[in-house]
Each structure stands twice: as structure tokens, then as C-alpha cells.
Amino acid sequence: MPDRALTEVPLQFGEGGRSFGILTLPDTKLRDPLESRVFVFLSAGFLHRVGPHGLHVLIARELAQKGLTSLRVDLAGNGDSLPRNELEYQQSVTADFKEILSVLESQLGDVSIVLAGLCSGADNAIRLAVNHSRVVGMVLLDPVCDKDSGFTARALGFKARAFAGKCTALFRYMPWLNRRIKSLITPSSDAEETMDNLSLRDIPPREQMRAAFESIRDRDGRVLSVFTEYALRYFNQSGQLGRVLDVDRYEQYCTEIFWPHAEHNYPFESHRRELIEAITTWATGQTQESLA
Amino acid sequence: MHEAFFFGPDDRQIFAVYHPAVGADGRVLTVICPPLFAELNRTYSILRKLAVALAEQGQHVLRLDYSGTGDSFGRLEDMTISDWVEDIKLAVQEGRELSGCSTVRIVSVRASALLASMSIGAANDIERLVLWDPIPDGSKYLQALNREQLAVLEQHHFLDRTMRHKLTCDYDMYRMSEQMMDEFRTIDSDVYSNVPRNKLRVFNTTSADEFPVQGASRDTVRHACNWETNTEGLIMSQPILEGLSKCLTEH
Fold first, then answer.
1. Quick check: B162 contacting A, CB < 8 Å?
2. Given a cut of 60, is residue A194 above it in pLDDT?
């Protein structure tokens, strides 16, 4: 097809074709025969495989331009995949992943996997990485991370700067101010909604997260973690995740990016572009310094 | 069961899912035209359920993603209204070939109602056009998109001044071409008037009926879709599903 260095194949797979995903294959001219990695984008929350604002589609097609293959999937009960009502959520995700591995093997042979996910997609990636030796990389968008010893002091600094910013451009923040006053009078504020959003996540405990990172290290893989404004409640400095996990050789295979200017779901095109650039740069093995 | 595939011109392959009629010869094809941008994700699940429900009631169903949206190819910023209007025509044609049906119904949501009405116009080969919370005209739609953008911006305190100014002035959440925005501005309520009234069926979820054509059949199921204020929450209402299904299956 003209001007298209990629092909996309809709795949119905699993028992009775219950699961659905789209495989993005780069043009054969761009494919490196030694490249065995396939990026698997896990759907997050109730969103289907395209991701928020089409993010997964954009990243998949950009990766294909760099010669990399990917699969964006609907986990059971999302998009075009049937639910597994008989299973608990984590069992269902594990069953999905078995089917994903199987279909990738049937389509592409022996592959290794880079799991990518936003929010609950990141949580699932971490859990799956521990027990599946094929997983050699993770792209974690707003994973949850414990606070470190300097967190509170830095958070105060952030709040002070944000407050100063609001005072210098008060007119811009009048709607925010109105909402804050309203929330003090009637306690059903945005803050509560945001907290609910975080509490809805089935967050992997620190030990499991550490095990996932160690597994990736032992498989000679790499991890990219990106934190946005959403993460400010628990993360506020690049390097915090490494300090919290305290995994040997962390800096050698892990990259942390902190973008407090970007929003969790990347609603703005400029931020989506920034993220896509970061992921493709990371995926094609550019230096960590160029990303950090 | 369903079948997903790409079809259409080489330079902007359209993604579609075909749900064949279950257990019947299926004489009706329904084409589902989703809403645009954030509303696409919000309604993905309910429109899929609608497709399954209609297929179980003996209709063939085709769901599509417009070029440059969802899983379809093409860059959004390269798309024009004419491309999307053409997408609907192509989807109807594709659905007819797959199903062998001559009776075609279309259900379209929000701004898609404008596109579907433009697409079928006075053509007599579409039997019914169901419009779920139709946007009255293109200008109002652009205004609504801009309000959404401003509301999202308001929540982000860490954007620098230059970026904030830039984002206030455009539709960065949905980067459209100038041509598309100009085209939206010129779409007025006449696009609905061009469709014979007996084919139109308006499905509202609020009592604020802004649909500009008198005499079109109307159904209302009250549900707070909050199209303009909630850009992320899924719409999963069973009454809406049943209401839409009724609009598309009733004789």
C-alpha cells in the first residue's frame, strides 16, 4: 500500500476466538531479522485496545516505522474480547496472556515480549512479567510507586510553586478556586474522585514489583517508566522508583521519565507526540541520557 | 461471532467489524456510525453490545471507525468531512456486499448524525436513519469541543504559559485540519432537512431536544450522558441499549 510501511492484521484468537487484538507488522524492508521483540499493549480500565485518545494505535504505527512489531489487545470483557465471568480479574488477565503468547507464537514463531500499559495496564504488565520468561521489557505509564524519604519535602515544594503560580495568574485559576471553595462546603471534590481512581487499581505490592524488575534484569531486558501529573500523589522526582525498589544495576537497564506537565491519559496531541517519541527512542535502543 | 477487517481505499483503510445475523437469513443491514473523538471511546462498548443484540434479533450489522480515528488508517489532521461522509457510503456498500441485504438502516451518534445525514441525503436506498443525541450543527459542535478543551486545560496547573496559550486557541485534544474545521462551520441544520422526515428517528437522552427538524419521530430515554462535561466515563446504560435496539428493530 502506498506510503505505508506497515500492515495491520485483526486477530481473533483464544478459545472459540473469544479474544481480539490487532497485530501491526512493519514492512519487510524495515524488519531486522534478529529482532524478536513484540510490543504488547494491554488495554487499561474500561478502554479498548486503541488506548486513550488512540495512543496505542499511534505508538504501534510509529514503532512499525522503526521496524518493530506490536499487538494491541482487548483484555477479556473490554472492546471486542468476551468476558471471562467465571474467573477473578487477575486469573482472567493471566488466561488472556497465555492466549496472547500462543497467538504470537503461531503468527511469528519464537518471540520475546515487551509489555506496555497505562495505569492498570502497567499494573498487569508488572504482574505478568514476574512469571513469564518471554517478557524482556516493560513500558510502564504511571505505575504506582511507594514514597521515598524525600517525598514529603519535595511535595511541599511542588505545592508552594503551584500556589505561587496561581497567585500570579489568579484570573486563570478562578474556576479552580471556585471548585475548591465548593468542595470545602460540599465534600464531593475532584480530589476525592481522583483518589477513587487510584484506589480502584489492583496495585502490585512492592515485592512483586521488585521481582518483576529483577526478572527483566536477569533476562537482559529493559524497563521504561513514565510518570505524569497523575502520579504526583506518590511520585515527584525522577529516580524515586529506583530508590524505592533498590534493585541491583537498576540504572543500567531502567529509565524513569517524570513529566508533571502531562496528564495521565495524554489528552493533548503535543504530549502524545512527546510520549511516542520517548517510547520509540527507548525501543530503538537510544541512550538513556537522551530520554531522562 | 464477528469478523474484523480493513476495507476501502489503499491510503486510508477503514477498520470495521461485521456481525452476521444469528440464526436467520437476515434481511436488514444496520450500519453503526460511532461518534467522534473522546465520545468514540465512551460509546465503544455500548455500540458493540448494540451490534450483538441486533445480530441476535436477525439483523446483519457493520460497525466502522472513521478514517483517522480508532483503528482505521489515516492521520486525523489529514482528514476532511468529505472523507468521513465517503466512509459511510463505503461502509454501506461493503455491508451490502457482505450481507446481501437491500434494506439498510443507519444509527449514528452525536456529530456522526451530521455526517450520516450528509451521506444519505435524499437517497432512497436507506430505509431508516436513527440519530442518537444528534449535534444540531457543525458550529455548535466546534464550540462544544473547544469548551471541553478549556475544561481539561483548567485542571492542569503545570502547563507553561506558552503551551497553555497555544492549547487554549486550538483543538489540540483532537488535532483537525483547518479544512475540516472550516467544513464543520459550514454544516448547518439543513443537512437534516434534506433527509425525508419519515426516515428520521431521533433518540434523545435528555429532555433538551435541540433537533432542528419538526415532524421527525422521537424517542427519549433519560440518562445523564454528560457529553460535554464527562470526556472519559463509559456509557453503559441498559435502557439506552434497549431504546436504540427498539428504534432499529420496530416496524
1. no
2. no
On whether the CB atoms of residues B22 and B55 are closer than 8 A, the answer is: yes
Q: Of the CATH numbers 3.90.1150.10, 3.30.460.10, 3.40.50.1820, 3.40.190.10, which one belongs to the domain with range A6-144+203-291?
A: 3.40.50.1820
Using alpha carbons, list the distances in angstroms from residue A274 to A225, A259, A269, A279: 14, 10, 9, 9
Q: Is B52 on the interface with A (CB under 8 A)?
A: no
Range list for CATH 3.40.50.1820 in chain A: 6-144+203-291
What separation in angstroms does the CA of B225 have from each of A46, B49, B236? 16, 17, 10
pLDDT tens sequence across A246-258? 999 999 999 999 9
Q: Which residues of B touch A261 (CB under 8 A)?
A: 156, 158-160, 163
Say what the pLDDT of residue A195 is.
Answer: 45
Q: Is A10 within 8 Å of chain B by CB?
A: yes
CB contact under 8 A, B4 and A50: no
A-chain residue closest to B9, CA distance: A1
pLDDT at B71: 97
Residue type (1 letter), A121: G
Return phi, psi of residue B11, to 5°. Answer: -85, -10
| Residue A190, pLDDT above cutoff 60 | no
CB B73 within 8 A of CB A4: yes
Nearest one of A46, A32, A95, A99 to A71, comparing CA atoms: A99
Which chain B positions have a beta carbon within 8 Å of A276's beta carbon? none
Question: Using CB atoms, which residue from A10, A50, A173 is nearest to B70?
Answer: A50
Lowest-pLDDT range of B11-15, B80-84, B163-167, B195-199: B163-167
Cβ-proximal residues to B175 (8 Å cutoff; 6+ apart), any chain: A269, B76, B77
pLDDT of residue B169: 65
DSSP code of residue B20? P
ipTM value for the complex: 0.92
Determine which of B12, B71, B75 to mutate to test the interface with A (most A C-beta atoms within 10 Å): B71
- Domain ranges within chain B, ordered by starting residue: 3-136+189-249
pLDDT in tens, B162-214: 777 777 766 667 788 889 999 999 999 999 999 999 999 999 998 777 888 88
Q: Which amino acid is at B244?
A: L
From B71's Cα to the closest Cα of chain A, the distance in A is 7
Tell me the one-letter amino acid at B180.
M
Closest by Cβ to B10, choosing from A2, A52, A176: A2
Which of B1, B48, B154 faces A175 most closely, judged by CB atoms?
Answer: B154
Would residue A67 be called left, alpha or beta, if left means φ above 0 and alpha means ψ between -120 and 50 degrees? left
Number of A to B CB contacts under 8 A, please give it.
89
* Fold designation for B3-136+189-249: Rossmann fold (3.40.50)
pLDDT digits (tens, 9 = 90+) for B228-237: 877 778 898 9
Tell me which chain B residues have a C-beta less than 8 angstroms from the C-beta of A52.
41, 232
Q: Is B232 on the interface with A (CB under 8 A)?
A: yes
* Distance separating the N- and C-terminal Cα atoms of chain A: 37
